[in-house]
Amino acid sequence: MPCSITTSTAIKIVTLSSQGVKGCINVFAPDGELLGLINAKEVTAFRTSLAVMIPFLRFPQEKANIVVFGAGKQAEWHIRLALLLCKDVKRITIVNRTNPAKMEQLFETLRQKYPDVSFDVLVTSVPEYDSRLQELLSVSDCIFGCTPATTPHFPNSYLSVSKPRFISLIGSYKPSMQEVDGETLLSGGKIFVDSKEDCLIEAGELINAGVREDQLVEIGDIENYERVARTQTNHVFKCVGLAIMDILAARELLSLAKSKGLGLDIGDL
């Protein structure tokens, strides 16, 4: 995925394998000199989660109770940034197929840093999963979808209609993938997106619901976004990711690493 701006150019190379998504981001100076390479996995999770924080922080309602679907890097950075940037968070629950050891380790660290926040995991294999999920979602303030699901995580009926929510969806990136049903997707009226064009092509939720371009509002269109956001109870944000996110995040991280003497300088090799 190539991208170029006036100050630098980057190429993100991604490999899809049985071990998951792996890749690197190559950052170049305007004259073509290679400035550095950086692992794409962490950067992608960070920049996507950072994009979600834009509408999340602008959501004017409660943000105390957050439910996160998924337990990978995307989920981790959603949690880290939400806690760092929002002081209202009181409870975070991970919903996942298994009880991931890495997430438990993360929770132990976060419990020490945020003693007033409760951290829980709901595993989909428990016998009472459906009833517990419905109870959990009915009182949720925010929902972060972070998995490449092919079927919705829950039916819209699990959500309390009278309660306003922020819902972000970053997991699906193919037409065959879908984290929520059409009713949930359209529950706020307009859908906030990072890119109208890309979401209409890649996001299974939008494709399956037959969403039109005039139903979408890009968060980069600040004036229009702020105007629409003030009129909606539920805020639903769909993000498929943009190459410019990679180049900006990677460039800044390489600059930061250089200033701190981190990384490996390979010179002209």
From TrEMBL:
<dbReference type="GO" id="GO:0005737">
    <property type="term" value="C:cytoplasm"/>
</dbReference>
<dbReference type="InterPro" id="IPR003462">
    <property type="entry name" value="ODC_Mu_crystall"/>
</dbReference>
<dbReference type="InterPro" id="IPR036291">
    <property type="entry name" value="NAD(P)-bd_dom_sf"/>
</dbReference>
<dbReference type="Pfam" id="PF02423">
    <property type="entry name" value="OCD_Mu_crystall"/>
</dbReference>
<protein>
    <submittedName>
        <fullName>Putative proline utilization protein</fullName>
    </submittedName>
</protein>
